[in-house]
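User: quick one, sequence for these tokens?
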């Protein structure tokens, strides 16, 4: 398997994984749900998992049970390692299965591992033969330029996504310090003799607080939608994440009520 074909397989299966994840989560929540750390319609974790399974079983014969078992082990290992590395990088757990039965430190759970095993069977016996048939019939130039395009696309997307999530994490970390600063300033202002200027200063600080909260809500909107179980070991950061979820839930409820009211009118 040469490098161009490997990249094509990775990109195709990352895209198929995105579609599977979106359909599965959308059916569960009864609304369209976007998934994935990156902005594009692909999930690298599926690309890596599928690539490893294809590399092991794509050109050899094995029993369905062996394929299922190894697929469970491979995909679970990929998901566990991804969760661990992302938590080290961003100091936040992007997904958490602690509420599921039979989980391992909240990073993987039995239900998802079984589903990945079934996907591994579908991959080897149904999906990969069709994908391989199509890919091997592409002209060499298409394979080469397509592979370069995929790499550039994912590289740019990864850089942008990492930057945005890092900025969001920085906002979460700064919130407590900023609130303390605002409270200290308000306390000092409140000790002054009431005047129009003092009232204006309080209003300016209030506007500053609201502006920061709006930016934080805007940043949280995408990440909490994509990773609804995002959590942190930092108690202050976890409290803030819960507040952001609550505010997002309240906004959705208000929007739903408005839509229902509009339909009735």
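Assistant:
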């Amino acid at each position: 398997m040469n490098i161009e074909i490997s990249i094509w397989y990775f990109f195709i299966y990352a895209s198929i994984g995105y579609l599977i994840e979106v359909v599965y989560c959308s059916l569960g929540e009864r609304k369209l749900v976007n998934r994935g750390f990156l902005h594009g319609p692909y999930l690298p974790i599926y690309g890596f998992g599928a690539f490893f399974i294809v590399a092991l079983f794509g050109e050899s014969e094995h029993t369905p049970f062996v394929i299922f078992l190894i697929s469970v082990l491979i995909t679970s290992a990929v998901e566990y390692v991804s969760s661990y590395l992302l938590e080290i990088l961003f100091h936040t757990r992007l997904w958490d299965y602690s509420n599921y039965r039979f989980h391992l430190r909240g990073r993987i759970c039995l239900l998802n591992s079984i589903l990945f095993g079934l996907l591994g069977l579908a991959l080897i016996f149904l999906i990969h033969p069709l994908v391989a048939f199509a890919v091997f019939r592409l002209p060499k130039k298409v394979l080469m330029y397509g592979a370069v395009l995929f790499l550039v696309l994912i590289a740019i997307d990864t850089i942008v996504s990492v930057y945005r999530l890092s900025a969001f994490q920085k906002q979460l970390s700064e919130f407590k310090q900023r609130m303390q600063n605002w409270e200290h300033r308000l306390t000092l202002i409140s000790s002054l003799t009431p005047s129009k200027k003092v009232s204006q200063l309080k209003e300016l600080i209030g506007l500053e607080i609201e502006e920061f909260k709006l930016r934080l809500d805007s940043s949280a909107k995408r990440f909490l939608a994509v990773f609804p179980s995002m959590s942190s070991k930092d108690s202050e950061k976890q409290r803030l994440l819960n507040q952001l979820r609550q505010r997002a839930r309240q906004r959705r409820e208000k929007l739903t009520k408005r839509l229902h009211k509009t339909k009735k009118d």
